[in-house]
Amino acid sequence: MSTVTSEHPETTPSDPSDVNRRGMLDKLAALDAEHAKALAGGGEKYVARHHARGKLLARERIELLIDPDSAFLELSPLAGWGSDFTVGASLVTGIGVVEGVECLITANDPTVKGGASNPWTLRKALRSDEIARANRLPVISLVESGGADLPTQKEIFIPGGAMFRNLTRLSAEGIPTIALVFGNSTAGGAYIPGMSDYVVMVDGGAKVFLAGPPLVKMATGEDADDESLGGASMHARKSGLADYFAVDEQDAIRLGRQIVSRLNWTKQGPAAAPSYREPLYDADELLDIVPGDLKIPFDPRDVIARVVDGSVFDEFKPLYGSSLATGWASVHGYPVGILANARGVLFSEESQKAAQFIQLANRSDTPLIFLHNTTGYMVGQEYEQGGIIKHGAQMINAVANSKVPHVSILMGASYGAGHYGMCGRAFDPRFLFAWPSAKSAVMGPQQLAGVLSIVARAASEAKGLPYDEDGDAKMRAYVEGQIEAESLPMFLSGRLYDDGVIDPRDTRTVLGICLSAIHSAPVEGTSSFGVFRL
Ligand code: COA
User: Which residues lie in Polar residues bias regions (predicted)?
Assistant: First the structure.
């Protein structure tokens, strides 16, 4: 066993680590301000109105549902960031422990447009379904929603059917689905309880009908009220859609916990080691590691030393392909393989080392963690002639076909095909989180603006026209600004390209929760990969 040594020098104000820390703390403060927007939901007026109606907020419901003092790993809290919709997308999703069972919990936020689902809500809901399915997590939906956000219905009506399809497919796979209905659940929304295995409805709150009184009047001329069309009492006594009648919200939560306690649920993955050591180095020092300028390299072993059990990292092929560190460790008692970019660029050696390492992890059924800080695969004549495409393809083949669970953490740069090879979003990592220092795009802003400039210059030369240098400078500045903004973690998180932006100091805890959730499903590798182009 080899302990990662990671000296932490005393810092003075001029030390790079002090600059790094200040930069990271600034970014964390900016992140907190955005998270606060999600927590504020629809704002004071709607929160006060909701409370005045004797109702609990989405996060209050979740807090009562999960085991006392247990953690809730909220996912995608910044969904919708940068769009016209409220940050958080009127839905709270995350992983929480209920009666000792890790569950995927979703809760509509009725203070935001009555909990109506906009295009970002839909993406967030579908992402949480994916997480539940891949990790075999029981799903608990805390329902109170005005259904489709009507002005944007064209974006959600047709793809939105997947929400109901997914619920019944989860059920078909033996993953329990539980709906606790606190409020409105109308029209298409009625199929959330309709497709769930277990349904609890709150007296005086739940309204579950295909059409409310005005629409019924329009359609058939019948006069009916909310209660007789879709109240909890009616559904518990007459239609049979409610399996449990809750006298109030707290009672619904109690019943939800009772249902989970009777699922007789067991995890199918191997258990974590019963005891393990904490890292030898302080997680607080993770703030010092990433430079504000991502062109300056940092050693990911300094990160690994502060994240893995006992700071023990058994490095594989340490003398070969040294700009990618690969090795074995454990996190909260769960064995993992780690691939971590060490000096930005991926060369042929690193790619082949990664492909071999991923195959080995699949042989030993070991989950993989990818720590990103890459500018992509090496370019240039020497490397093209040396077969960088073939070798990069080997790594991407291994990542794409690997069947052990993957978790990606974007620490710094995650550019170009390097993002793919390191198991970017399109490669279905079970979870993907970014640090506030992360940046991800097809390439860096200066490079992208420079490429556009070269192409434009060549085009004007081909036409025999003089090149507009002033216009070029303006274009480059504009494009650089745009690409920089689009590569920042809040922007990417807003688009659901990650599962959240996390404080680096929380990395070990977040990984622990994810690994524990992952082991709800079997953890099995494969020996079936695509043809490795040798
Ligand atoms: N699409 C877009 N906006 C909606 C919405 C929807 N489906 N449902 C509610 N809203 C908006 C309201 O216009 C209101 O906006 P405002 O405060 O800016 O004026 C805000 O959300 C709050 O709605 P309000 O009706 O005041 O809240 P409520 O808590 O008293 O009632 C509902 C909530 C959901 C019961 C009620 O708004 C409703 O019946 N909405 C329509 C439900 C429906 O038929 N949906 C179609 C299903 S496919």
Answer: 1-17
| Beta-bridge partner residues of 184 | 207
Ligand 1 site-directed mutation target among 53, 155, 184, most atoms within 8 Å of CB: 184
- Cα–Cα distance, 421 to 340 (Å, whole number): 11
Atom 11 of ligand 1: nearest residue by CA position:
113
Quote the ligand 1 centre to 458 CA distance (angstroms): 55
Identify which of 44, 113, 118 to mutate to test ligand 1's pocket (most ligand atoms within 8 A of the CB).
113
Q: Which of 372, 279, 382, 283 is nearest to 323 (CA)?
A: 372
Determine the Cα–Cα distance for residues 136 and 145; give it in Å rounded to an integer.
Answer: 26
Q: Mapping DSSP to helix (H, G, I), strand (E, B) and coil, where does residue 102 land? A: strand
Q: In terms of CATH, what superfamily is 1-40+270-438+501-526?
A: 2-enoyl-CoA Hydratase; Chain A, domain 1 (3.90.226.10)
Ligand 1 lined by 207 (C-beta under 6 Å):
no
CA 143 to ligand 1 centroid distance, Å: 14
CB-based contact 182:247 (threshold 8 Å): no
Whether residue 185 has its Cβ less than 6 Å from ligand 1: no
Does ligand 1 come within 6 angstroms of the Cβ of 117? no
Contact indicator for 135, 99 with CB cutoff of 8 Å: no
Nearest to 270 by CA among 363, 366, 176, 184: 366
Atom of ligand 1 nearest to the CA of 149: 1
Q: How far apart are CA 439 and CA 372, in angstroms?
A: 10
> From atom 6 of ligand 1, which residue's Cα is the shortest distance away?
149
**Alpha carbon nearest to ligand 1 atom 39, residue:** 146
CB atoms within 10 A of CB 192: 24
Ligand 1 site, residue 260, Cβ cutoff 6 A: no
Q: CA–CA separation, 529 vs 351, rounded Å?
A: 15
User: How far, in Å, from the CA of 78 to the mean position of ligand 1?
Assistant: 22
Across the 534 residues of the chain, what is the mean pLDDT of every consecutive 10-residue run? 60 71 97 97 97 97 97 98 97 98 98 96 98 98 94 94 96 98 92 97 97 91 95 98 98 98 98 98 97 94 98 98 97 98 93 98 98 95 95 97 98 95 97 97 89 94 93 94 92 98 98 98 98 93
C-alpha 71: how far from chain center: 16
3-state secondary structure of 429: coil
> What's the CA-to-centroid distance between 176 and ligand 1, angstroms?
30
Burial 2-19 (b: 16+ CB within 10 A, else e): eebebeeeeeeeeeebeb
Residue labelled with tokens 């959240």: 500
For the Cβ of 53 lying below 6 angstroms from any atom of ligand 1, the answer is no
41-261 homologous superfamily: 2-enoyl-CoA Hydratase; Chain A, domain 1 (3.90.226.10)
Distances (CA, A) of 349 to 252, 318, 407: 57, 12, 23
pLDDT of residue 531: 97
Residue 332 amino acid letter = H
